[in-house]
Specification:
Strand content: under 5%
Largest sheet: none
Number of domains: 1
Distance between the termini: 52 Å
Order of helices and strands: HHHHH
Radius of gyration: 21 Å
């Protein structure tokens, strides 16, 4: 009997339990509360870059393996904040994709992301 009452209440509300909708992803604008996906990855990448610059070949290999996920997270964060990258930053990202061993270029890319993310958080 309780199940029937619950079902009738849910039907009256217009939402059946199996049809509950989740908010659409990618709809957050600058100023909305959100977790930055790339923030933790950037911190870890900077530590790897320091180790790789000191000659740690394992850190360099890990850097190369982690780079695609980092680039995707950066792109997602900027999109969610409504930030539009400029052609110079796009060219920098492309050059990092082509040559992930250029650690100075990777650091510039991370710095650009950090600056844009800080600007986006301020609104």
């Amino acid at each position: 009997m309780k199940r029937i009452v619950l079902l009738l209440v849910l039907i009256a509300c217009g939402t059946a339990p199996e049809k509950a909708r989740m908010p659409a992803s990618g709809t957050m604008m600058a100023g909305d509360s959100m977790a930055m996906m790339a923030a933790a990855l950037v911190a870890a990448e900077q530590a790897r870059l320091d180790s790789a610059a000191a000659g740690d070949t394992a850190a360099l290999a890990h850097h190369r393996a982690a780079l695609p996920a980092l680039l995707k997270a950066i792109q997602t964060d900027l999109m969610h904040m409504g930030m539009h990258r400029d052609s110079a930053y796009d060219a920098l990202i492309d050059s990092v994709r082509r040559d992930p061993g250029d650690l100075a270029r990777v650091r510039r890319m991370l710095g650009g992301y950090t600056a844009m993310a800080a600007k986006g958080k301020r609104g």
